[in-house]
Amino acid sequence: MTFAVVTGGGTSGHVIPAMAVLEALVDAGHEPSELAYVGSRRGVESSMVPALGVRCAFLPVSGLQRSVSPRSLLANVAFPFRLLAATRGARRLLREWSPRVVVSVGGYASEPAARAAVAAGVPLVCISYDMVPGLATRRQARRAAACAVAFEGSGLPRAVVTGAPVRRAVRTMQTAERRAAVRAAMGIDDDCLLVTVVGGSLGSAALNSGVPAIVASLAAAGVAARVVHITGRRYSGGAAVPGAGTVTVRTLPHEDDMPSLLAATDVLVSRAGASTVAEIAAIGVASVLVPWPAAADDHQTRNAGWLGDAGAASVVREGPDLAADVAAEVLRLAGDPAARRALSSSARSMGGLHRGNSLTELITDAALA
């Protein structure tokens, strides 16, 4: 028997929540054999989700291209045909698996299975973890049995505030214990400031270019610090930023155990994707958030504002002086441990709902209705 099919993907911003939902359902008592996942052949999910031990299917669907290049225009012309073929494939899968519920985490990869669920009369639960629901989620929500949302005021029908899906390692983390263990393994003393800079799985050119200013400002002030610079896969071939004075730098293309690194971090510099913001809150991390201004519907600004407006994060808007602005804010927090503790404590207090069971309870209610 299949209890739930989870669908969505294409980018890690959708795949990580999908994996979090699958883990939460296992933790709620469902065997991996009762669960399945449907994503895109073109996304990162094919290398990430199978490790969970659930059945997986990857369909030939991709999103609309925003570029006006000839290749992108041709891809957009083919989009409706690919979506139709993928939806037919999803219908075959649902007939074979006979799930009690389909759970969509959004993104273009969720469309075929969500459409198939509606056509087959299978309850559909949409999950929205951004302050501004994405286009696919808004469209699917019209026919959904319920919408699980991370924030009040989503505007989606039949919305229930459940918190955002976060990975098991985040939900169950004993932060203080994990922090001590990770810092010891990294050789970081208690009086050494750990600054982590990350711009998402692919990376951020704007944040990457600001790392030298962060290093220089900390070194000029004589702050003993370790900067972990996660470039993102798109920029993994670039030259590493050197350390200076009292500051050492470790450069990585990506980090497989990001929750542990966040637990050990004193100051995080990051974009404001939904999964990142949820993990900051669930773990309790002092952060400097730089929303990506080109995000759809400017949703990263709203995500960052959820923490920033509550005094749970420092928010820096991207502009011509971004590197200097971020470096100044990191230096301010470096010299003010009380401010770091306040940000961390406020963030953690806002993450309680993310660590709870409300999401799996809503999915179960929809499946058994």
The CATH architecture of the largest domain comes to 3-Layer(aba) Sandwich
* Helical fraction: 40-55%
CATH class of the largest domain, named: Alpha Beta
What composes the largest sheet? 7 strands, parallel
The CATH superfamily label of the largest domain reads Glycogen Phosphorylase B
Q: CA-to-CA gap between the ends?
A: 17 Å
Helix tally equals: 13
Name the average pLDDT: 92
Low-confidence stretches: none
- Percent in strands: 15-25%
CATH topology of the largest domain: Rossmann fold
Overall 3D geometry? elongated
Q: How many beta strands in the DSSP annotation?
A: 13
In spatial order, strands of the major sheet run 3-2-1-4-5-6-7
By oligomeric state, this entry counts as single chain
Give the structural class.
alpha/beta
Order of helices and strands: EHEEHEHEHEEHHEHEEHEHEHEHHH
How many structural domains are formed by the residues?
2
Radius of gyration based on Cα positions: 21 Å
Task: Looking at this protein, list some descriptive labels.
369 residues; Rossmann fold; seven-stranded parallel sheet; six-stranded parallel sheet; 13 helices; 16% strand
Outline the fold blueprint.
Elements: E1 4-7, H1 12-27, E2 35-40, E3 55-59, H2 70-97, E4 101-104, H3 111-120, E5 124-128, H4 135-141, E6 146-149, E7 159-161, H5 168-171, H6 175-186, E8 193-198, H7 205-220, E9 225-230, E10 247-252, H8 258-264, E11 267-270, H9 274-283, E12 287-289, H10 299-308, E13 314-315, H11 322-334, H12 337-350, H13 358-368
Parallel strand pairs: 1-2, 1-4, 2-3, 4-5, 5-6, 6-7, 8-9, 8-11, 9-10, 11-12, 12-13
Helix pairs in contact: 2-3, 6-8, 7-11, 9-12
